[in-house]
Automatic annotation (TrEMBL):
Residues 6-158 form the Glycosyltransferase 2-like domain. Gene3D superfamilies: Spore Coat Polysaccharide Biosynthesis Protein SpsA, Chain A. It comes from the Bacteria. This is Glycosyltransferase family 2 protein. Keywords: Transferase. CDD domains: Glyco_tranf_GTA_type (cd00761). GO terms for molecular function: hexosyltransferase activity. The keyword Lipoprotein does not apply. InterPro entries: Glyco_trans_2-like (IPR001173), Nucleotide-diphossugar_trans (IPR029044). The keyword ATP-binding does not apply. Pfam families: Glycos_transf_2.
């Protein structure tokens, strides 16, 4: 029997947290799921813990492999997954007991290809995304707030959509979630966002912070994403996602002079300025939103305003 959800669960040296994470998954009120646990060459006791749980829960599929990184582990997990929808949980995080049930209810109601739960709680911090929203179509959601958030563990993806386009996680990236999410979103017919039971995200002291290396990694993501859009003819539509990328990749790191110069060069290389100049809808819907956002970020206001206007041919 095909499970409704396949949960992709990469594990690498998280012996301190993985047991609690597994307990939160197997405490779900919605039971029609399989857990694909990928031991990515752990050198601690993580594999022993996984084996113990696999003896108790027949819906835990355990795969053990040499270390290849998070993207590689997720890709292997997707190959083994048989569920109708794919979810992702990191092995040091927790999910609320109704987490899967809330996804299921929204999917059944909307028949969405992709669902996003905006309710995230960081450990030892106040909840994020507290805005109480009802299910919302993606385009409406982006127009209200262009900052989508690309953490793959906030989504449920229809597996046939992933298989149809052969999408995988890019290896060797710091922000490996971003290309996957932004490549698949425009391909879906129905995308809904909702605020359900929370995903509890454990933030470590060594978590990625804003730095120049991470910034330039996002430029490589940007290049791959835009080239994917070009291959799928997405840039010839009025889909909002390409403009989200322009907004996001520029505003988050506008204070890095080298970053700004390189991203501008990348845009010209990909001939996006011509596309943006022709599409006045992009300016009307997104430039004004960005302008308002920049007012709250005085440090980057001048250079980014000039940068974006030059791309849109408004100087």
């Amino acid at each position: 029997m095909i499970p409704f959800f396949s949960i992709i669960f990469p594990v690498y040296n998280t012996e301190r947290y993985v047991e609690d994470s597994l307990k939160s998954i197997f405490s779900q009120t919605f039971k029609d799921f399989e857990l694909i646990a990928i031991n990515d060459g752990s050198t601690d006791q993580s594999l022993c813990i996984l084996k113990r749980f696999a003896q108790i829960y027949p819906n835990l599929i355990l795969i053990s492999k040499e270390n290849g990184g998070l993207s590689d582990a997720r890709n292997i997990g997707m190959q083994y997954a048989k569920g109708k929808y794919l979810c992702f949980v990191d092995s040091d995080d927790l999910i609320h007991p109704h987490y899967l049930a809330d996804f299921y209810n929204v999917i059944q109601t909307t028949q969405a290809d992709i669902c996003k739960n905006t309710h995230i709680i960081k450990f030892t911090s106040q909840p994020k995304n507290q805005k109480n929203t009802s299910p919302t179509h993606l385009q409406e959601f982006i127009l209200k707030d262009p900052k989508i958030g690309c953490n793959v563990w906030t989504f449920a993806f229809k597996k046939t959509l992933i298989d149809q386009y052969g999408l995988t996680f890019l290896k060797g990236r710091i922000f490996e979630d971003e290309p996957f999410v932004l490549m698949i979103l425009p391909l879906a017919q129905i995308v809904f966002t909702f605020r359900g039971s929370p995903y509890l995200y454990r933030q470590h002291s060594g978590s990625i912070v804003a730095n120049s290396a991470a910034a330039f990694d996002r430029i490589e993501n940007f290049k791959d994403i835009i080239q994917w859009y070009q291959s799928q003819n997405i840039l010839n539509s009025s889909h909002p996602i390409p403009f989200y990328i322009l907004y996001d990749i520029s505003i988050k790191n506008a204070y890095y002079k080298d970053y700004l110069q390189k991203s501008q060069a990348m845009l010209h290389t990909l001939c996006l300025e011509k596309f943006l100049h022709q599409d006045k809808l992009a300016y009307n819907l997104f430039y004004l939103k960005i302008e308002n956002f920049i007012r709250e970020h005085q440090k980057s206001r001048g250079i980014f305003k000039y940068y974006l206007k030059s791309l849109l041919g408004l100087l």
